[in-house]
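Dear support,

Our group has been running a series of protein-ligand predictions, and this particular one with zinc ion is the one our PI (initials K.S.) wants archived with full inputs and outputs. We had some confusion internally about which version of the output was final, so please treat the block below as the authoritative record. The input we submitted was:
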Amino acid sequence: MAEQVAIEEGLFTWPSDDPRLLGSQCLDCGAIIFPVQSGCPRCASDNTTPKELGTRGKLWTWTIQGYPPKSPPYAGDVENFEPFGVGYVEIHDEVKVETRLTIADKDALAIGMEMELKFIPAYVDDDGNEVITFAFSPVEE
Ligand SMILES: [Zn+2]
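Confirmed final output from the archive:
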């Protein structure tokens, strides 16, 4: 029986009733960092604490990945590759997060639009498990 597994340990709280991305906050300068880092990239302090990030943000920039990415090696099914959206979402008052988008429709994406966090199947691994990753989706008004 196939299971669902997280794409990377410690990247987000999942499974959960209220899954969140996991970052760090610097206790010296207040910078918020994603993903978790022990050192602050702004002030070089190592005085950081784990922080669960917000689930809403604004689309900062985006593109459509129209072919299997070369690096890191694409783990999905190259033969049946389907284009997907990628971009940066600026989580409100927190941090910009590089993310996959749930849609790949250039007419439906616009810089500055409100986005929300989702969890989606990324690919099926060699053991037949469904690998879950995070993505952002336009908020349905
Ligand atoms: Zn800092």
